[in-house]
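Handout, page 2. Input:
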Amino acid sequence: MIKEELFELSFPYYTGRNRRVRVYVPEHGEAERLPVVYMTDGQNLFEDNNPGQFGCWYTREAVKEVGKAVIVGIHNDESPIQRTRELTAKSIGALCFPDEMPEFIRKSIIPEGELFDDFAVNTVMPEIEKRFPVQKGRNAAAFCGSSSGGLQAYFTALSHSEKFCMSGVFSPTFPLYSVGDIVGWTASRLSGSEPYLYIYSGAVGEPEEEICRSTQAVYDSITEIYPAERLNEVILFDQPHNESAWATIFRDFLHTFLTRRAEF
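Output:
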């Protein structure tokens, strides 16, 4: 058996600075190939990653409890505005900002999710498949994230249904768009081989209350166009917008991915 290991990689990013990517490979056999979950916010996924005030997903512990998978955490640890920019896609639709948001923040959020998507799919994925013992093919890959990362997971998985069979869409920042724009964009991505969407939201405090309302509105709308067997919505009304909640729901998502991925 090959012992578990957490690797740290660095790749050139479009901002001109290198971007960290951490890869957790659990204990596995010499010839064993594992499914892989690509995730945003790599800075908060591992307990030794110094997650600080934002908490931790404890993905390594989840893998040990639930089942074997390689976890690829792409860091988004720049400023909050930069994180929002790089995890918000322009092509979904025009951004909708709340009235109370300061004008300087509105002007600072220029959607660049397509660039992050390109980095994840065309830079990170090929290197992971080359360097690590991962299975290839869409049924072996999922994409997961929370908040702006949940929005990005929705965008990336639907943009590359040939690469991902499942997406963990946790507390997605759907309120940044109109429901009509999200549904219209989703309809444009339907190909007959859609990924399974595991959509989750809590409902305690801001911004989770607003995210919950928007998530339910989006879910209710896309059920009219999306294959029912590839949709799942989980609302936990007692959960806030934080890593502790996402760490808990991630275990169920990972179990769903590992046990049902062959179906999609």
